[in-house]
Design goal:
heterodimer, A: MetI-like fold, 15 helices, 76% helix, B: mainly alpha, MetI-like fold, 2 domains, 74% helix
Chain lengths: 282, 329
């Protein structure tokens, strides 16, 4: 009995030890962004100061610089606009495709679904060189439209895959009943399947949006003007002037952009993971 | 109530069948397949998924083929015409020391970070699997590196690893491992720079791998490890002989995605070191970017990026096998 008790305590202690060590290692950079954001420049660049505490009173200077004298707000806007349009394109393409592949095309659709999933594995670093040419031919280089056209290449396959899993869980009888009542197949999809899949659609909206904010390679390749830049590229390239790093503003920029995305992502995490586990988990 | 249901069911079912029987022998030959219910459903299916497929063919399929075409021509940024040059691009990149360095680095980078990720995420997922007070908050903290945009996370590390104001150096100096101002330049010395890039990538992928494994762990029936413990197997014996073997399929999933995400990534390298010092952290994707986009040599850049394809093919093969297995089960 005592043995079992000490075993329990040992398990408890070792679990928290593991969790604390990993949580500190993984979350530390974000804590560091937070503390750097509010430190005075003189405090940041004095080697004798203990960097873990405020040796001078905290300041809002870095935030003022970030919002007042850089294009940060513009990048936030660009990213929001691109995100919204890409969400729209993704839904328009992925919803019907996912429905067709789950319901209307049988086994053949299953295979097609897997093929579409495999296209998700083709990385931007393989496609960016030919795509840079395609974007130039379309006359979209250096505008946000270049990434609007290209981003669905990774949001659509993943969304189709997620939605297929979702549609499969809707009982067929529901649509059959609606069709007996006089709806066409298309009508059943629009009036019945789409409304009851709202939470699946919301998942797609959130992930499309976060994938857009996380993208780096395409924005770096296609867009070069400061005003047209996306958040993920603008912060690391244009907040650095020559060799001068405005670390306080940089860290503020990183933190402000990361936290809301992290919170959103967390809310929908389990569904996102279901898209990756490819049926290996029952 | 039951009577009515079965009645209406019959009503709904009978008429089409009756009609079908009546017309079968006369009409089947004449009615084109696309007028039959199955044919119409199939047509609607094709109509519904073809916009997505056309888009994917145009912007993934065509560029994918173009990458091969470019690799065998001399196309440059802004050039109007291009010529077939055979294997010239491959010959010249294979002779370049930068390329050989990048090829080797890509493998080191992927293999070492994946080993670290798998060990770390196995430990972490086992620690996270049961419900306990504060689990949600711990999970949020642990997930931050994966959910935050990677270019911004990498900038955070660039500050932590700064040549002069690095907090790591400060701690090491405070602990008297180094004299003031003599701590190493984390991103300035070849082997340390490589280690830094690998660690930042491990940091980034560890949460992703952990949540995938967590999904696998919660699917393992609880009574099996519990029964083993009742039978006297200790925690570690249960872990190594029962839990981890049962996790293998899901560890495979995590590794396959991990390899793709690592081998094809250039963001961490681009931001932390830009491939330097002296190409010591250059990887294939970053070299393809510097050659193809910044230097404007599209054809050589494309040739370099084609070296990603064999890895993608191998991973896709394993993914297909797994998906096939899941379909049968």
């Amino acid at each position: 009995m005592r043995n079992a008790l000490s075993q329990k305590i040992l398990e408890h202690v070792s679990r928290w030890f593991v969790l604390v060590v990993f949580a500190v290692l993984l979350a530390f950079p974000f804590y560091w962004m937070l503390i750097t954001t509010f430190k005075r420049t003189a405090d940041l660049y004095t080697l004798e100061n203990n960097p873990f505490k405020f040796n001078l009173p905290p300041t809002l200077d870095h935030l003022r610089l970030l919002f007042g004298q850089t294009k940060y707000v513009m990048w936030l806007e660009n990213t929001a606009i691109v995100g919204a349009i890409v969400v729209g394109i993704t839904l328009v393409l992925a919803l019907p495709a996912a429905y067709a592949l789950t319901r209307l095309t049988g086994r053949w659709g299953q295979r097609m679904g897997i093929a579409i999933f495999l296209t998700y594995l083709v990385p931007p670093t393989l496609l960016f060189i030919p795509l840079s040419r395609v974007v130039a031919i379309l006359g979209l280089q250096d505008t946000i439209w270049s990434v609007v056209v290209v981003y669905p290449t990774f949001t659509v396959p993943f969304s189709i895959w997620l939605l297929m899993g979702f549609f499969k869980s809707i009982p067929r009888e529901l649509e059959d009943a609606a069709m007996v009542d006089g709806l066409t197949r298309l009508g059943a999809f629009v009036k019945l399947v789409v409304p009851i899949s709202l939470s699946g659609i919301l998942t797609v909206v959130i992930f499309t949006f976060t994938l857009v904010t996380q993208e780096f390679v395409y924005a770096l390749t296609f867009i070069s003007t400061e005003n047209n830049q996306m958040l993920g590229v603008g912060v690391p390239t244009f907040l650095v002037r020559g060799d001068v790093y405005y670390w306080g503003s940089l860290m503020a920029a990183c933190l402000i952009a990361s936290l809301p995305i992290a919170v959103l992502y967390n809310l929908f995490l389990d569904r996102f993971i279901a898209g990756f586990t490819v049926g290996a988990v029952k | 109530m039951a009577m009515k249901e079965s009645g209406s069911g019959l009503e709904a079912k009978v008429p089409p069948e009756v009609v079908g029987v009546k017309t079968q022998d006369v009409d089947v030959a004449k009615v084109p397949w696309r007028r039959t219910p199955e044919g119409r459903a199939r047509l609607l299916g094709i109509g519904l998924f073809s916009p997505a497929v056309l888009y994917l063919v145009a912007l993934i399929g065509v560029p994918f083929v173009l990458a091969f075409v470019y690799a065998f021509t001399d196309v440059k940024v802004g050039s109007v015409s291009s010529h077939y040059v055979g294997l010239e691009n491959f010959r010249s990149i294979l002779q370049s020391p930068s390329f050989r360095k990048a090829l080797g680095n890509s493998f080191i980078f992927t293999i070492v970070s994946q080993i670290l990720v798998i060990i770390g995420s196995t430990i972490l997922s086992v620690a996270l699997k049961d419900r306990f007070h504060g689990r949600g908050f711990v999970r949020f903290l642990i997930l931050l590196p994966w959910v935050a945009p990677i270019s911004l996370g990498a900038i955070g590390w660039k500050w932590i690893l700064d040549s002069l104001y690095s907090v790591i150096s400060w701690v090491l100096v405070a602990l008297h491992f180094y004299k003031p101002y003599s701590a190493p330049m984390w991103l300035g010395e070849p082997s340390l720079a490589m280690a830094s890039v690998i660690l930042v990538h491990t940091w980034r992928l560890l949460p992703f791998s952990t949540v995938i494994m967590l999904a696998g762990l919660t699917a393992i029936p609880k009574d099996i490890p519990e029964a083993a413990q009742v039978d006297g197997a200790g925690f570690f014996r249960t872990l190594f002989q029962i839990t981890i073997p049962m996790m293998l399929p899901i560890i495979n999933v995590a590794v396959l995605f991990g390899i793709i995400f690592t081998f094809t990534d250039m963001t961490v390298v681009y931001i932390l070191t830009a491939g330097g010092p002296y190409d010591s952290t250059q990887v294939l994707p970053s070299l393809a970017f510097f050659t193809g986009i910044l230097a404007g040599d599209l054809s050589q850049g494309a040739a370099i990026s084609l070296f990603l394809v064999p890895i993608l093919v191998v991973i896709s093969y394993f993914m297909l096998r797994m998906a096939h297995g899941a379909e049968i089960a």
